[in-house]
């Protein structure tokens, strides 16, 4: 059955690239040339930025020993094999230095760029920049995987990359020439994620229409990381994750240690 999205993808390369996006976890050993890298980094710089603060940065990881540590933190060996590896960070340190040049006292508890609002906006900016780079990489025939797993040990990331006060790790991004072709992961019905004017009431059963069919579709999907069995149904995945203890992954204490005031 041909859908409207299929029609759009047929005439728009950007949409086709986005609709065919899939995480790549196995890369060829070929390095990424400097010109391509420059294009990817420049595209990231052109992403939207809240109030034009440019309050993010990215650490390019080329040291094999640091790559190996990243792989250990993420419990994913392929991280160490990525030809191009970045850690995107929210960055108010640069803005602190700039403000200080203009006579601003950044040690004041009222210094605005250390607030929870700016922390969140800077985090958003870093994600937008990463996504722009990821999309550009896919459009150039490369493959990527976003690495939330690096946040398993934030203090170690801070130590490894010498992240100063007013910076904080957000996500990693591994890029390379794909050496696998995973199937597209199923997406839930749009009616479960897009609403008109307001969020559905909690007792609105219709808002979950299509869940059973989606569960079955997901269950028929085979992930290349475990090809001998189908993936758990979506509902089962949600139930499992919702009962996991993540107290050791708290944000507030680690962000406070980096100079941020998330209580404000």
UniProtKB/TrEMBL annotation:
<dbReference type="InterPro" id="IPR016446">
    <property type="entry name" value="Flavin_OxRdtase_Frp"/>
</dbReference>
<protein>
    <submittedName>
        <fullName>NADPH-dependent oxidoreductase</fullName>
    </submittedName>
</protein>
<dbReference type="GO" id="GO:0016491">
    <property type="term" value="F:oxidoreductase activity"/>
</dbReference>
<dbReference type="InterPro" id="IPR000415">
    <property type="entry name" value="Nitroreductase-like"/>
</dbReference>
<keyword id="KW-0560">Oxidoreductase</keyword>
<comment type="similarity">
    <text>Belongs to the flavin oxidoreductase frp family.</text>
</comment>
<keyword id="KW-0521">NADP</keyword>
<feature type="domain" description="Nitroreductase">
    <location>
        <begin position="19"/>
        <end position="177"/>
    </location>
</feature>
<keyword id="KW-0288">FMN</keyword>
<dbReference type="InterPro" id="IPR029479">
    <property type="entry name" value="Nitroreductase"/>
</dbReference>
<keyword id="KW-0285">Flavoprotein</keyword>
<dbReference type="Pfam" id="PF00881">
    <property type="entry name" value="Nitroreductase"/>
</dbReference>
